[in-house]
Amino acid sequence: MIKLNVLGNIAILVDFDGTITSKDTNVLLVKRYMNDAIKHLLEIRDKLNYMEYLDLLFKEIKISEKEYINLILERVQIAEGFIDFYNNIKNNNIPFAILSGGFDNAIIPLLGKYDIKDINVYANTLKFDGCNITVNYFHGDVNCCDMGPCGNCKVKHFEKFKEDNYKVIFIGDGFTDRAIAEKADIVFAKDGLLKYCSENDINCIEWTDFNDINKVIFNTMSN
Questions:
Q1: CB-based contact 10:88 (threshold 8 Å)
Q2: Neighbours of 98 (CB within 10 A)
Q3: Which pTM does this prediction carry?
């Protein structure tokens, strides 16, 4: 196991869905509200940019904000070892932020369920009009990185931290993490992101849960 000395000007940036959480909240919604239109959307997803996909997806999902939040709170849990990871970050005064291609409507209530209320969250926002949903994007329709228009560009957030001369550690698992994984100083990758890093010769550290990350960064085991 590689050991990292957490010394100097380090910041840690972490994806949310499938990384901090036990399951992806958007995948949960897709499975819950699957219909023929969503099935077709999944078939053509590779032909769409991320914003086009989300806009079409949420036209098909009819749910109130209260129902949406309750679904997340009932069906999604925080990943193993994250609470200890969060406490280690606080104890070491390390700058930390969540970067998500998902939605703060889900992130903030779920963190609050675990009494986590002081993390900077950079995410998109769902706007509810009864059961009709539109997506309010953090960065808007900007070709900001190799992903094309991605709504909330993780590379843009990364660059802000680099401007302050931080050595940036990024932790992620999926598609929206690819562009930042190509730039971060240290990458922890699993699942689809691990496959992408392996196929594209991107140095990364494989992980399964935050117990692994605690051991590597803080040289501690979670309780």
A1: no
A2: 21
A3: 0.90
